[in-house]
Amino acid sequence: SAAAAGAGAAHDAAASPAPDSGVQVVVRIRPPCRVDEEEAGEDGRGPEACVRKTAGNLVAIQGHVQGQDFTFDAVADAVSTQEDIFNLVGRPLVENCLSGFNSSIFAYGQTGSGKTYTMWGPLSALSEDSVSSERGLTPRVFEQLFSRIKEEQVKHADKELTYNCVCSFLEIYNEQITDLLEPTQRNLQIREDVRTSCVYVESLTKQYVFTMKDVTQLLLKGLANRRTGATSANADSSRSHCVFTCVIKSESKNPEDGSSSTRSSRINLVDLAGSERQKLTHAIGDRLKEAGNINRSLSQLGNLINILAEISQSGKQRHHVPYRDSKLTFLLQESLGGNAKLAMICAVSPSQSCKNETLSTLRFAQRAKAIKNNAVVNEEKVEDVNALREQIRQLKDELHRMK
Ligand code: ADP
Ligand code: MG
Asked: Using an 8 Å Cβ cutoff, are 100 and 379 in contact?
């Protein structure tokens, strides 16, 4: 790329533009578990799954017309492990990130389909000192990130390569943002930096992380503060969107010529609220309002995916895309059709009783596949800045002389 080709570029020039900025869509069919067993037949055998992986990354759903199966970048089923998911989406995310690309992973799906299991893993696997095979994507991503940072520093020992990672963790619930690292901070506001047009959450706690222990502590703290709402329709459904963000800044100095460059990239790891149609029965007052508001962020995500997919497919100009109509889409607008790589893990249950929701998740996933993002390396070279400063100085001189 032009940016990396300049003389004295201290960062690894291998940073190439994103070869494919399409959204990576992975479907994960979770194994049958205890809740599904209630459906087991009289003969005691488990229920037949209503959805299965077929050859060529296809998903077939029972009762759907043959030849109209859904196709994705990858399909993970009951035999796929947490490590498989990490290899599919986590490893590439870390490499993208080290190359200076913003990168996000969203977990979408109905309650009970395995989103939380996929993104963080069971809490017991996080708190254990031993390395559990059930650890989710997030701890694995950071483990890989720290190890790759060390590798890069060794590889470029001739340059002073420094990294810092700053994390935050928030929840969107009922269209209100709560700081999961400091839960007394509620109803935080989203702001936009007019200069960089960067979107951020005002006064959200930021915490440096240096080791896995730091990351694990943040995760455990944040997840413990996550809210759950109980309704008669869904006793322990997760109605909040959870966003774990890490900004990674690296600076590379070339001691020979004194040049330097900085790169920064942002990782968003997002565990979305359950995508099931909110059942409004028995929900009254605040609960009813809540259901509407929770739907706003998710339905707005669905709307945007439709709009962006249509734009990509038709090659039409982008007019107004309504990012600001919900907290989730405002906050994560860069991940949706913007300057970021996006992977979407669409989690589905194998259960017969979930068939309609599974079908709707697969349709959502198929539309997401059509979106094109526009990811670029976020790099700034000090020589460039100095050259601009010099230019400003000369122009000021000139202006002064003209007076
Ligand atoms: P969601 O966050 O989508 O509501 P969870 O991640 O909480 O769903 O998963 C629901 C239940 O299924 C949990 O008990 C979880 O441990 C289990 N589970 C989900 N996915 C898997 C999997 N791939 N392997 C084993 N258990 C799983
Ligand atoms: Mg969950």
From this structure: yes
The one-letter amino acid code at 185 reads: Q
Ligand number nearest to the C-alpha of 119: 1
**Interface ipTM above 0.95:** yes
Alpha-carbon gap, residue 229 to 317, rounded angstroms: 41
Are 376 and 339 spatial neighbours (Cβ–Cβ below 8 Å)? yes
Could you tell me which of 157, 118, 102, 133 has the C-alpha nearest to residue 334? 102
45 φ/ψ angles, rounded to the nearest 5 degrees: -75, 150
- Spans in the chain with pLDDT lower than 70: 1-20, 34-47, 65-68, 228-237, 278-294, 318, 383-384
- Expressed in angstroms and rounded, the spacing between residue 204 Cα and the centre of ligand 2 is 23
Q: Taking the C-alpha atoms of 73, 198, 220 and 130 in order, what is their torsion angle to the nearest 10 degrees? A: 50
Tell me how far apart the alpha carbons of residues 239 and 228 are, in angstroms, rounded to a whole number.
Answer: 6
Closest atom, ligand 1, to C-alpha of 111: 4
Query: Counting atoms of ligand 1 from 1, which one is nearest the CA of 271?
Result: 2
What does the alpha-carbon distance between residue 82 and residue 119 come to, in Å, rounded to a whole number?
9
Residues with Cβ within 8 Å of residue 104, at least 6 apart in sequence: 267, 268, 269, 270, 332, 335, 340, 341, 342, 343
pLDDT value, residue 187: 94
Q: Is 131 exposed, middle or buried (0-12, 13-18, 19+ CB in 10 A)?
A: exposed
Q: Which of 26, 29, 33 to mutate to test the pocket of ligand 1 (most atoms within 8 A of CB)?
A: 33
Are 351 and 36 in contact by the 8 Å Cβ rule? The answer is yes
Q: Terminal CA-to-CA distance of the chain, rounded, Å?
A: 42
| Measured distance CA(159)–CA(327) in Å, rounded | 41
Single out the residue of 249, 48, 68 nearest to residue 166, CA to CA.
249
Measure Cα distances from 250 to 27, 163, 265, 339 in Å: 33, 4, 9, 18
